[in-house]
Design brief:
It comes from Clostridium gasigenes. One of its GO terms (molecular function) is ATP binding. Helices cover about 35% and strands about 30% of the residues. The chain is of the alpha/beta class. It folds into 3 domains: about 140 residues, Rossmann fold (3-Layer(aba) Sandwich); about 55 residues, no CATH class; about 50 residues. A hairpin with a 2-residue loop joins strand 1 and strand 2. Helix 4 crosses helix 5. The chain is globular, with a radius of gyration of 22 Å. About 35% of the residues are buried.
């Protein structure tokens, strides 16, 4: 399956949120990175057809999504940032209700829902009212509802918010496993989630596509831009005001800093291998 996003523009009044955005997606996991207000959620809402672009089009295998109607929406699974969950429903009833809204036969839906409760580790809480769920449990339930009807295009907006480290690892493994036969686009500020599972990383800045690359190539692109040095505690405030400091480690008699800079910040700094978190900082703190 090929999803082509072609020359999408979106404005809210005079504010341009997406500027001539174009992208081609095939089966696999795509991580969407951007600062708050970069246009990530707007892009996702346009893809899932709950928001209209001012111009541009989206094609699925060469066919305009608008001509597919309900057939296009049947291909979509979507987890928004804020998912409305009926607190008096239990987990099983909520998923059965969502399946009914998607027109899935009761017998088929029942088997599907039990499977989704299993893979999201909610089977033992199937009869627990959603109002009693923790934030992480509600997020897992949201992930489960996004997978109803086995969607071929899965759009996930901040899917791991509220999940503990073990749950996040389980989620990453699950997404990696199912991505072989579908397009997965996930937006998150937790860069490690993208680092471990994304085939490509899409960097969106001020409504424009800045990068569409592998994690390895993005890390390589800031080679020779990350420095390590030792400083005294009283120097920290001044250095933080002057440079992008990606990490600070307290040692016995000094503080070790990692600094992002195109050139050597000052004498005593040495080049060090970059990491993916520093890619994010380079694009959204350093290159402002």
């Amino acid at each position: 399956m090929v999803l082509n996003i072609m020359n999408i523009c979106k404005k809210y009044g005079d504010k341009v949120v997406l500027k001539d955005f174009s992208l081609e997606l095939t089966n696999g996991v795509y991580g969407l990175l951007g600062a708050n207000g970069a246009g990530k959620t707007t892009l996702m809402k346009i893809i899932v057809d709950i928001l209209k672009a001012n111009s541009g089009k989206i094609l699925i295998d060469g066919v305009d999504k608008n001509s597919l109607g309900d057939g296009y929406r049947a291909l979509i699974g979507y987890l928004p940032q804020e998912l409305g969950i009926y607190k008096d429903f239990n987990a099983y009833d909520f998923l059965m209700y969502m399946a009914a809204l998607k027109g899935i036969d009761g017998k088929v839906a029942k088997e599907m829902v039990y499977n989704l409760l299993e893979i999201t580790n909610l089977k033992e809480d199937a009869k627990t009212k959603c109002g009693k769920f923790s934030g992480g449990m509600k997020r897992r339930l949201g992930i489960a509802q996004s997978l109803i009807n086995d969607p071929k295009i899965l759009i996930l907006d901040e899917p791991t918010v509220g999940l503990d480290p073990k749950e996040r690892i389980h989620f990453r493994n699950m997404i990696s496993n199912i991505s072989r036969e579908r397009i997965v686009l996930l937006s998150t500020h937790i860069v490690s989630d993208i680092e471990f599972i994304a085939n490509k990383v899409i960097i969106l800045k001020n409504g424009e596509l800045v990068e569409n690359e592998t994690v390895e190539n993005l890390v390589e692109s800031i080679k020779n831009k990350v420095w390590i040095t030792r400083v005294k505690a009283e120097e920290i405030k001044e250095l933080e005001a002057k440079y992008v400091v990606s990490n600070m480690t307290q040692k016995e008699n000094y503080i070790e800093l990692r600094i992002i800079s195109d050139s050597i910040p000052f004498d005593g700094c040495e080049l060090v291998n970059a990491n993916f978190e520093e890619v994010y900082l380079y694009y959204f703190n350093y290159k402002e």
